[in-house]
Amino acid sequence: MSLLITGIGELTTHDPGLGVLTGAAVVVDGDRIAWVGPMGGAPDADERLDVGGAAVIPGFVDSHAHLVFAGDRAAEFAARMNGEPYTGGGIRTTVAATRAASDEELLAAAGRLVAEARRQGTTTIEIKSGYGLSVAQEARSLRIARQLTEETTFLGAHVVPAEYRDDPDGYVALVGGPMLAAAAPHARWIDVFCDRGAFDGDQTREILTAGAKAGLGLRVHANQLAPGPGVRLAVELGAASADHCTHLGDADVAALAGSDTVATLLPGAEFSTRSPYPDARRLLDAGVTVALATDCNPGSSYTSSMPFCLALAVREMRMTPAEALWAATAGGARALRRDDVGVLRPGARADLAVLDAPSFLHLAYRPGVPLISTVLHNGVPR
Ligand code: NIG
Ligand code: FE
């Protein structure tokens, strides 16, 4: 089954050879893009969709989300908006609720969030574990995540759970040993929350090194709450992504700039914790590859909306609209080491969003407005 999408007023491809096209068409064959070019030259297809001058963009690649959990923490959010700081301590509240939930409840709740993200243009989403924090519970969270995405991440090292409070090194050994063994068959990635109140540099190194030996790719929650070794460790160990990057020194920026490690910025977290935003301009000017993602989770960033994060990045982080769109699509693909998403060119996945707007600029220009009219995922409109 092939589909000709025509009448595209503005097509952002993120392919260096194709660029941004006006008056364009795209042909989709099965789950792939077959052809991209000017409207007049489009080949025939089985079906036809005229989008009437709308803008079309690659589907968003949300490379950082925590969707397997139960309950919410709205009261914690309200307390923060009344002056309480965010410490990550509330993670244990969600762990208790998650452990008590059934598999069916967790899958249904995560599935609802994936569907919510999809309606807002997200076609690739990474999902982390990290609210189970025992061997059986982390394996269960990843089995559930695997039903929703290929991009699953083992985050047993989210915080030290209450039952290991007096033996954090025992917990690190558990994460890097039996928990990793149970998680690895269901995970593509391993992540550690390397920060104040979570795991230090030595613990992070131990867990990531074990994860790499088990064949997992590396990602790090780094420098969110305080300066620390997370970003430099991510670069040294060849992690695909260092996420948050809020508190950076010059050495951190230089390390990222000379590496293949993507800096994934999560402005929903700064919004929701009322914290200063990361300095995207400084990273971009230094030549760092930047991605944007939602960090969707019930504590620090309960949004599934990539358009919202993109608008924040433009308004609060001095990114241009074009830089923010790239970071939310092609940048996320880099952070997941994927070359088949985040870009619209022949051979790429047929993952795209049609906007109810003549230009992608409207994503930041009209914040909070639902501008995603049609989403194609693997070539299927949904
Ligand atoms: O990325 N920083 C660590 N983990 C999450 C927050 C999780 C939570 O508060 O439940 C984050 O912001
Ligand atoms: Fe996170």
TrEMBL record:
GO terms for biological process: L-histidine catabolic process to glutamate and formamide. It is found in: Cytoplasm. It catalyses: 4-imidazolone-5-propanoate + H2O = N-formimidoyl-L-glutamate. Residues 56-357 form the Amidohydrolase-related domain. Its EC number is 3.5.2.7. Keywords: Cytoplasm, Histidine metabolism, Hydrolase, Iron, Metal-binding, Zinc. InterPro entries: Amidohydro-rel, HutI, Metal-dep_hydrolase_composite, Metal_Hydrolase. Zn(2+) binds at H64, H66, H221, D295. It comes from the Bacteria. 4-imidazolone-5-propanoate binds at R73, Y131, H158, Q224, S300. Binds 1 zinc or iron ion per subunit. The keyword Zinc applies. It holds the Pfam family Amidohydro_1. Belongs to the metallo-dependent hydrolases superfamily. HutI family. NCBIfam families: hutI. Catalyzes the hydrolytic cleavage of the carbon-nitrogen bond in imidazolone-5-propanoate to yield N-formimidoyl-L-glutamate. It is the third step in the universal histidine degradation pathway. This is Imidazolonepropionase.
